[in-house]
TrEMBL record:
It holds the Pfam family ABC1. It comes from the Eukaryota. InterPro entries: ABC1_dom, ADCK_kinase, Kinase-like_dom_sf. This is ADCK2 isoform 5. Belongs to the protein kinase superfamily. ADCK protein kinase family. It comes from Pan troglodytes.
Length: 223
């Protein structure tokens, strides 16, 4: 593993999302970046899994879910540079309220070796997602991206559940031992994982409706 590549990926994502206030990436602190060591800024945040709990306002859950889906769709259809490890542990939330006092206490305090560590709340900032661990990314060749866009458009027109359809496709590929290009597979898995996370926050999340602006207007990120 060469952590210099992860630092480059973080900087690439920062450029891609420089005009998107709702998504943030840690900044690699050069010259403290080597093959074995990556030093980056600390982003005071709350794990997205904390907002899957009962008692969190539904409106806040919907906003977080929508931010995540728009972020992924931009990566795929606008930037063609996709974070391929988008499990909940790599997604943090800044600028959100809604946690109860007991939940905040659990997140902000840890008793380690008789030393009380207390997280200091970050300064006010807009609601946004912070993405970690950008060591794995995926990019599609131009023909593959066109084909993927066409398939996604067909799914949108057919009003199918994206994750269910992709899961069925993977089962068929495994059954018939058909090899799938690794970057394509990584992007498909990213969609399945993030849509699942989004639906755990908002069961009514409609990734197809969110995808329409990206598919119909080309490389323009919706607000």
């Amino acid at each position: 593993i060469d952590l210099r590549y992860e630092a480059q990926n973080l900087e690439h994502f920062q450029v891609n999302f420089r005009n998107v206030k709702a998504v943030k990436f840690p900044t690699p602190l050069r010259p403290f970046v080597t093959r074995e060591v990556l030093v980056e800024t600390y982003e005071e945040s709350v794990p997205v899994s904390s907002y899957q709990q009962a008692g969190i306002p539904m409106d806040l859950k919907r906003k977080i879910a929508r931010l995540g889906i728009n972020m992924l769709l931009k990566m795929i259809f606008v930037d063609n540079f996709v974070h391929a490890d988008l499990h909940p542990g790599n997604i943090l939330v800044q600028g959100a309220d809604g946690l109860s006092s007991s939940q905040e206490a659990q997140l902000q305090q840890a008793d380690i070796c008789d030393t009380l560590v207390v997280a200091v709340p970050s300064s006010l900032c807009p609601l946004r997602l912070v993405l970690l661990d950008a060591g794995i990314v995926a990019e599609l060749q131009a023909p593959d991206l066109r084909n993927f866009r066409a398939v996604f458009m067909a799914v949108v027109m057919g009003q199918l559940h994206v994750s269910s359809l992709l899961s069925s496709v993977f089962k068929l590929l495994m059954t018939h031992k058909v090899k799938l290009e690794s970057n394509f597979a990584s992007i498909v898995f990213a969609i399945m994982v993030l849509e699942g996370l989004g639906r755990s926050l908002d069961p009514k999340l409609d990734i197809l409706e969110a995808a329409r602006p990206f598919l119909l207007t080309g490389p323009v990120c919706p607000p």
